[in-house]
Structure formats: structure tokens, C-alpha cells
Write a structure and sequence with these properties.
Helix content of chain B: under 10%
Helix content of chain A: under 10%
Number of helices of chain B: 0
Order of helices and strands of chain B: EEEEEEEEEEE
Structural class of chain A: mainly beta
Oligomer: heterodimer
Number of helices of chain A: 0
Number of strands of chain B: 11
Shape of chain B: globular
Structural class of chain B: mainly beta
Radius of gyration of chain A: 14 Å
Mean pLDDT of chain A: 91
Order of helices and strands of chain A: EEEEEEEEEEE
Strand content of chain B: over 45%
Largest sheet of chain B: 6 strands, mixed
Largest interface: A-B, 25 and 23 residues
Chain lengths: 116, 117
């Protein structure tokens, strides 16, 4: 997972509290993504960013917001955590094809979030 | 909407066997396909990436093929070892809007591989 760091690695929080997860990259890649992984659902895209202050929704964006004020940081916020948001959250980065034509996605190590 | 299916869902084999993991996708308009490995409680590690114009990629004992027209990819693992035990995921990446390549990955559910000594 060189070049991409997620924090915290583990978190337990109470229902109704706000939670922010951080993804930090040192690769200077343009695109950043937040996925969640759940048994039976696989990996699903929450939000993604195609540049500083440019973000868009994925397939499971309800209850989540994101921000990207710098190229290297992509924050995922659960405004009011619910038990259904208990999951493992992964951040990923990618670059344009003309910059690295054989380059795919690189994933972080994940954040295990438990909402009680 | 792109759908990705991986078969089998689970596979248990003795050490030394050659094995094939299958991945199929419904929309052939892809930019590339990537195979990942995930160990329990860990993140995803990229194994192989095949561009849409390529037919196969090889890395050590791993070989991945792509038949875009039929919407299929296979991951071949030669001489399997207990250390190969993990979940294997395939993911397809479409072309993004305006010819960009930031298209969002669609993942299969994965194949859980167990290689026993």
C-alpha cells in the first residue's frame, strides 16, 4: 500500500455521532475513490473525486459526504453514523491513462468502522 | 449497468494443482480489467492488469487472459501453494466521460481460494 494511507485503521463509534475517515496519498494522482466492503455485497463505490474540489456520488452515497481540498487528501464523513454503516472502508487512487497507460487502481489498507 | 460475476464462489484444492478462476462481465466497453488478491482482514493487492487491447498478462505463476468480445477473463494459477490462499477479485474499469479513464471500477464478488498442503 505504498503511497496511500488510511486513518484511522479501526474505529468504534456510537449511533448518531459524526465520523470522518481520512485518505492520504503521496503519488500525486488525480483520482481518488471511497469504497465500502460488506459480506454479500462486495466492494461498492461511495464517492469519488476527479480533482481538487471536484467530487461526485457513487452507487451508495446516501449518508456520506466527501471533501477534497488538496490533491493528497480525500475525506469521507458520515454525518450521523448508523449501524448500517458498519463496514470496512477502502480508499483507492488512479491516474489518467496517458500518464501511466498500464496503471490500475491502488488501494489503501482499509478502515474497519463499527457503529454501535 | 455493468455486472461482474466470478465463478466459482469458493474453491478448495490440494497443493500443486493448476487452477482457473473465471470472471465475466456484461458490458464489453471496458478500459481495462484488473485482478486483485485480498487476504483476510487486509486490503487489496493488485496482481495483474489487462488493457482492453491486450489478450493476456503474465506475472510469475499467474496468467490472466481477456476476451473482451465475449465478456470473459480467466486467472490461471500454476502449481498452487498454501500461500496462494486468499480471496481473488476481478474488477472492470470503463472508459470515463470525454475519453478520460477515471471510470469507476465494478467488482465481482470474488472467489475464495483455499490451497491445502
Amino acid at each position: 500500500d505504498a503511497g496511500i494511507t488510511q486513518s484511522p485503521r479501526h474505529k468504534v463509534t456510537e449511533t448518531g455521532t459524526p465520523v470522518t475517515l481520512r485518505c492520504h496519498q503521496t503519488e500525486n494522482h488525480r483520482y481518488m475513490y471511497w469504497y465500502r466492503q460488506d459480506p454479500g455485497h462486495g466492494l461498492r463505490l461511495i464517492h469519488y473525486s476527479y480533482g481538487v474540489k471536484d467530487t461526485d456520488k457513487g452507487e451508495v452515497s446516501d449518508g456520506y459526504s466527501v471533501s477534497r481540498s488538496k490533491t493528497e487528501d480525500f475525506l469521507l464523513t458520515l454525518e450521523s453514523a448508523t449501524s448500517s454503516q458498519t463496514s470496512v472502508y477502502f480508499c483507492a487512487i488512479s491516474e489518467e491513462w496517458w500518464q501511466k497507460p498500464n496503471y490500475g487502481y491502488t488501494f489503501g489498507s482499509g478502515t474497519r468502522l463499527t457503529v454501535v | 449497468k455493468q455486472e461482474v460475476t466470478q465463478i466459482p464462489a469458493a474453491l478448495s484444492v490440494p497443493e500443486g494443482e493448476n487452477l482457473v478462476l473465471n470472471c465475466s462481465f456484461t458490458d464489453s466497453a471496458i478500459y481495462n480489467l484488473q485482478w486483485f488478491r485480498q487476504d483476510p482482514g487486509k486490503g487489496l493487492t493488485s496482481l495483474l492488469l489487462i488493457q482492453s487491447s491486450q489478450r493476456e498478462q503474465t506475472s510469475g505463476r499467474l496468467n490472466a487472459s481477456l476476451d473482451k468480445s465475449s465478456g470473459r477473463s480467466t486467472l490461471y494459477i500454476a502449481a498452487s501453494q498454501p500461500g496462494d490462499s486468499a480471496t481473488y477479485l476481478c474488477a472492470v474499469r470503463p472508459w470515463g466521460a470525454g475519453g478520460t479513464s477515471y471510470g469507476k471500477l465494478t467488482f465481482g464478488q470474488g472467489t475464495i481460494l483455499t490451497v491445502h498442503p
